[in-house]
Write a structure and sequence with these properties.
Strand order of the largest sheet: 1-2
Number of helices: 13
Shape: globular
Order of helices and strands: HHHHHHHHHHHEEHH
CATH superfamily: Formate dehydrogenase/DMSO reductase domain
EC number: 1.10.3.-
Keywords: Cell membrane, Electron transport, Heme, Iron, Membrane, Metal-binding, Oxidoreductase, Transmembrane, Transmembrane helix, Transport
Family: Belongs to the cytochrome ubiquinol oxidase subunit 2 family.
Distance between the termini: 51 Å
Number of strands: 2
InterPro entries: Cyt-d_oxidase_su2
Protein name: Cytochrome d ubiquinol oxidase subunit II
Mean pLDDT: 92
Length: 336
């Protein structure tokens, strides 16, 4: 395996980590209007991700930095062709982050409701647009011979991409609601479990359509196997949820996201951004990568840094592993 292919795999790994971790953050945020019956339950929901949401988002920063350093041509073409969707994702993430920090600063219901809406929108917009973006990456965009995107933003709103966006929206929502059931107690836990099952059934249908579409248009045995594993994982997540096994349901839900994202990267390889104008204009792992010297330096850095990051994140989740109980919220100050 050459270094360019290795770094394609590392980029895939980083985006898998981001979608698995920030994916349930998005789902938790989107669950507020469905599960947040009062301020106590809304605070309970938000506190399930309070200690970890910002750590989860660092995966996107690391993925973006590694993409820029290892595949500068890919990075440049993505940001020129996907400028508006990526800008909307950035603004949504900023709004969501501000809401987490400022919601508890005010005491009025109007103040809290305004920031709750920002959390919901700031979660739903990236959840949908990431699916649209990655579906278009796999499908291909209008790249000319200089690898410049010559299409319009409306070209990105094609049927395949819209189904991809709906898939990630529903998948992250189900993933997040399962996390709420895993991390809470009492009536909120029971309601989250019921909602996760209902949302999971709809997710299963939409995701099956998207994955089948992907397999048919980018057929290989690897893509087929990964799509099948994603489907089986989602079914097992729903079954575990029915048996009140939230830990297994969340694990299988995370596996669903993992297999689905890896299936997209497998369908994309060896391209990194296909051209719909002429396949000869496509960006590939080879023609979009940095020099071998740059990739060598990055590889040694990754060998040191990645294990430390994984250990730190694992330790953080272990420290905050306990459920967020309603009693603990009721006993806290009203502005906490």
């Amino acid at each position: 395996m050459d270094l360019a292919t290795l770094w394609f795999g590392i980029i895939a790994f980083l985006f898998v980590g981001y979608f698995v971790l920030d994916g349930f953050d998005f789902g938790v945020g989107m669950s507020l209007p469905f599960l947040g019956k009062d301020d106590i339950s809304r605070r309970q929901i938000i506190n399930t991700i309070g200690p970890v949401w910002d750590l989860n988002e660092t995966w996107l920063i690391v993925a973006g930095a590694c993409l820029f350093a290892s595949f500068p041509e890919w990075y440049a073409s993505l940001f020129s062709g996907f400028y508006l969707p990526l800008l909307l994702i950035l603004l949504a993430l900023i709004a969501r982050g501000v809401s987490f920090e400022y919601r508890h600063q005010g005491r009025s219901e109007r103040w809290k409701a305004g920031f709750d809406r920002m959390i919901i929108i700031g979660s739903a917009v990236p959840a949908f647009l990431w699916g649209v973006a990655f579906a278009n990456i796999v499908r291909g965009v209008a790249l000319d011979e200089q690898h410049i995107h010559v299409g319009t933003v409306f070209d990105l709103l094609n049927p395949y991409a819209l189904v991809g966006g709906l898939t990630t929206l529903l998948l992250f929502f189900t993933h997040g609601v399962t996390f709420v059931a895993l991390k809470t107690d009492g009536p909120l836990r029971a309601e989250a479990r019921r909602l996760a099952f209902r949302a999971g059934l709809l997710t299963l249908v939409v995701a099956a359509v998207f994955l089948a579409w992907t397999v048919l248009t980018h057929f290989s045995l690897i893509v087929l196997a990964l799509a099948a594993l994603a489907a089986v994982s989602l079914v097992l997540s729903l079954a575990s949820n029915l048996r009140d096994r939230e830990g297994w349901a969340f694990t299988f839900g995370a596996s669903t996201v993992l297999f689905a994202v890896v299936a997209l990267f497998a369908a994309l390889f060896p391209n990194v951004l296909p051209s719909t104008i002429d396949p000869a204009f496509s960006l590939t792992v080879e023609n979009a990568s940095s020099t071998d010297y740059t990739l060598q330096i990055m590889t040694w850095t990754a060998l040191v840094a990645l294990p430390l990051v994984l250990l730190y994140q694992g330790w953080t989740y272990w420290v905050f592993r306990k459920r967020v109980t309603r009693v603990s919220i009721e006993g806290a100050p009203a502005h906490a």
